[in-house]
């Protein structure tokens, strides 16, 4: 089902609202809330994919006119995908219509837009040959100017928290125009529960739990993409915006009943401290290697950690195991300890005598740490 149509942006002010100077006050009061409606399509507690002809605010290019000359900023409309640890270039170019004979001094600013309550982050500003980077981007970003009027941003050694929307702004005197670039990391979404069982995390504890597994709390867009790829999970979990949702591909009685269509079902926003649920984590593709350690005996949890250290590695985390399964095809029928005290095993090629007939990461929960029933999965960084 397609989403509700979005209002068009006004030229030169992508994604903003503007109200005519002359308007009846009652009509103005009614229209002001409507002109700023945005967000993903929503219907009856479900989210559905955007219409292919839907409005896409702030992408493509911006343009403004001054003294008969139009300043145009061009950025790609498609989402850019990359990997953690990789280098990526966010394209941005500008030009004038009609073309100018002599160059004009401009100021360039890149910043990362606010997401889910997080503040905007300045990334880089440049005037001529002078550049300045900010915060965690220092030493990792520079302006890529291979061609005339190219002001692309290169980010090196991508981190989990680097994904999101970036704005490229070109300032010419009193005029400024901008374009939007969206960066997404290749990764995998996985549900995560507390060792004591279902629905134990408040939002802040959920954030910490994902970080401990070399992951971050998933965004709605990441969960939605995982649902499109087949993720089906009946327990509700926190997302990055502090909403609580769960993905269903096969409608059934224990998961909302048979009368509701498949989709990402939502409980809406919840109190960050008082309410408790599971969490959906997002782990990016790895630069290192996850492997099952060949050992003559089964191990306790403490022995498993020590065995990985003796092999010049460390015991793997849940996010690392999921990433190795998703992107490196890790396939092993042997259950092994992980850093959080759980025992799991990854199956890339489903087969008999190896769990269910669907690929995935199987879990034995959180066994007694002193039991000697399991091997261990280790992680060696590259």
UniProtKB/TrEMBL annotation:
SMART domains noted in UniProt: IG, IGv, LINK
UniProt keyword list: Disulfide bond, Extracellular matrix, Hyaluronic acid, Immunoglobulin domain, Repeat, Secreted, Signal
UniProt GO MF annotations: hyaluronic acid binding
Function, as annotated: May function in hyaluronic acid binding.
Originating organism: Eschrichtius robustus
GO CC terms in record: extracellular space; perineuronal net; synapse
Organismal lineage: Eukaryota, Metazoa, Chordata, Craniata, Vertebrata
Protein name according to UniProt: Hyaluronan and proteoglycan link protein 3
Domain Ig-like: 85-186
């Amino acid at each position: 089902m397609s989403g509700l149509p979005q209002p068009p942006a006004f030229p030169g002010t992508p994604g903003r609202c503007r109200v005519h100077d002359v308007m009846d006050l009652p009509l103005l009061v009614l229209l002001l809330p409507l002109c700023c409606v945005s967000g993903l399509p929503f219907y009856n507690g479900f989210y559905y994919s955007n219409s292919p002809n839907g409005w896409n605010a702030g992408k493509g290019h911006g343009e403004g006119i001054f003294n008969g000359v139009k300043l145009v900023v061009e950025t790609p409309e498609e989402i850019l995908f990359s990997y953690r640890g990789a280098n990526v270039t966010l394209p941005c170019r500008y030009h004038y219509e009609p073309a100018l004979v002599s160059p004009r001094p401009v100021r360039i600013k890149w910043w990362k837009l606010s997401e889910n309550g997080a503040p905007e982050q300045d990334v880089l500003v440049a005037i001529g040959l002078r550049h300045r980077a900010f915060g965690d981007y220092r030493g990792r970003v520079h302006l890529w100017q291979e061609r005339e009027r190219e002001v692309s941003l290169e980010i090196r050694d991508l981190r989990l928290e680097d994904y999101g929307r970036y704005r490229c702004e070109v300032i010419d005197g009193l005029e400024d125009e901008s374009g939007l670039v969206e960066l997404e990391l290749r990764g995998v979404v996985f549900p995560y529960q507390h060792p004591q069982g279902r629905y134990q995390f408040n939002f802040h504890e959920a954030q910490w739990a994902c970080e401990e597994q070399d992951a971050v709390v998933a965004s709605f867009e990441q969960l939605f993409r995982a649902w499109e790829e087949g993720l089906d999970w009946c327990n509700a979990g926190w997302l990055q915006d502090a909403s609580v949702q769960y993905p269903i591909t096969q409608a059934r009685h224990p998961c909302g009943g048979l009368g509701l269509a498949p989709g990402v079902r939502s409980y809406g926003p919840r109190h960050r401290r008082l309410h408790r649920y599971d969490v959906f984590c997002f782990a990016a593709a790895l630069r290192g290697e996850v492997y099952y350690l060949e050992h003559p005996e089964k191990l306790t949890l403490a022995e498993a950690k020590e065995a990985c250290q003796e092999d010049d590695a460390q015991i793997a985390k849940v996010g690392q195991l999921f990433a190795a399964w998703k992107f490196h095809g890790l396939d092993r029928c042997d259950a092994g300890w992980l850093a959080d005290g759980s025992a799991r095993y990854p199956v890339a090629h489903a087969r008999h005598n190896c769990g269910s007939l669907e690929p995935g990461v199987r879990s034995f929960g959180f066994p007694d740490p002193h039991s000697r029933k399991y091997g261990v999965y280790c992680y060696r960084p590259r």
